[in-house]
UniProtKB/TrEMBL annotation:
PROSITE patterns in the cross-refs: FE_B12_PBP (PS50983)
Residues of the Fe/B12 periplasmic-binding domain: 106-352
One BP term from GO: cellular response to iron ion
SUPFAM superfamilies for the chain: Helical backbone' metal receptor
Species of origin: Pelagerythrobacter rhizovicinus
The protein's name in its UniProt record: ABC transporter substrate-binding protein
Annotated stretches, region: Disordered: 1-35
One Pfam family cited in the UniProt record for this chain: Peripla_BP_2
């Protein structure tokens, strides 16, 4: 699986030091398990906005290099996983998964994007555990997560709970889905929508899969209503630079680009995908507006350097109109991105943020 142990010294979206640029392998051992647990990772370019950052907080993720990891288990860890597997194997099929047509009663969410859908559309009594980040500031449904148990997205920990449904976006690593399904545990895989229309479809699909089809369609209809109420974009669109404390920005082919365009703005970033801030260009050309995301609570990470701390980048925040975007609005693809669109729409019309 992709997650071994979260730590303050963690690097990358999965809590470990990324592989070097030349692709040479590195092994990382969990301090909790001594030499019994080793993560082996490979990097792969895939335009991942959260990759190669300096902390797990998505406000401070770095460039667009993805990472793929596999778990190499030592003797002690094999015993832990074997025990969990035996627990799952000893359970009857009815205990391991919900009966056909029955609503799941033991739902586990593996990451904070999955948390949002589970908290919105699943019955609270049916939620067995959420991810460790369900209550963080960048989690839109953090208030609803209060009081619910959490679990780390590790196979042994998840299987020990004997869930009858697992929901994930990126949590647990790519191999976790076939592994859990092989043991009879159904998995709902949340996609990675790149357009507003795809977000809408995903809301209906995931909500229906969680037994709340009517509420999901209502959420999609609410998105439609709010989008229809937006003012028409001006004939000449103002340019907006999306900016995070991690020094990231976003161009064409991303959901953030769609958010800016839907709000009536033109994206200042002219390179597709996720990239670091274009510092050289910003030295002689400036956006009309800065869309500053994930900046709430940024003072707690003052020791971390990124391109956003360069004087040229900081000048954009000081000298240009800034639209503050809550990290929870753009951290995942969901119905809540409409909040970001509405905030940006005011700036598109020339209104002061």
């Amino acid at each position: 699986m992709r997650h071994a142990r979260w730590s303050k010294s963690a690097r990358g979206p999965i809590g470990i030091q990324p592989w070097p640029a030349n692709g040479a392998s590195q092994r990382h051992r969990s301090s909790k398990e001594g030499t019994s647990l080793t993560l082996v990772c490979r990097s792969r370019a895939r335009g991942n906005p959260w990759s190669n950052g300096r902390t797990l907080d998505p406000r401070f993720r770095g460039d667009d290099t993805g990472h793929k990891c596999r778990l190499v288990l030592g003797r002690k860890s094999w015993f832990v996983c074997l025990a969990a597997l035996l627990l799952a194997a000893c359970a009857s099929p009815q205990e391991r998964s919900a009966a056909p047509g029955a609503e799941p009663q033991r739902i586990v969410s593996l990451d904070y994007c999955a948390d949002q859908y589970v908290l919105r559309f699943a019955e609270r009594d049916a939620i067995l555990a959420l991810s460790p980040y369900a209550g963080e500031r960048f989690s839109y449904m953090r208030a609803e997560a209060e009081g619910l148990p959490t679990v780390r997205p590790r196979t042994a920990d998840v299987l020990a709970l004997q869930p009858d449904l697992v929901v994930r976006s990126f949590g647990g690593g790519a191999d976790v889905v076939p592994f859990l399904e092989e043991l009879g545990v159904p998995v709902i895989q949340i996609g990675f929508p790149q357009t507003i229309a795809e977000v809408r479809e995903e809301v209906i699909r995931i909500g229906s899969a969680l037994g709340a089809g009517d509420e999901a369609r209502q959420a999609a209809a609410d998105m439609d209503r709010r989008l229809a109420a937006l003012p028409a974009p001006p004939e000449k669109r103002r340019t907006a630079l999306y900016m995070t404390p991690g020094g990231m920005t976003s161009g064409e082919g991303t959901l953030v680009h769609e958010i800016l365009r839907t709000a009536g703005l033109a994206n200042f970033q002219d390179r597709p995908g996720w990239n670091t801030l274009p510092l050289e260009r910003l030295a002689y050309e400036h956006p009309d507006v800065v869309a500053a995301a994930f900046y709430e609570g940024v003072e707690s990470q003052a020791e971390i350097w990124s391109a956003a701390r360069h004087p040229v980048a900081r000048a954009q925040l000081e000298n240009r109109p800034v639209v503050p975007l809550e990290g929870a609005w753009t951290s995942c693809g969901g119905w809540f991105l409409i909040d970001a669109i509405e905030a940006l729409s005011q700036a598109a019309q020339g209104e002061r943020p």
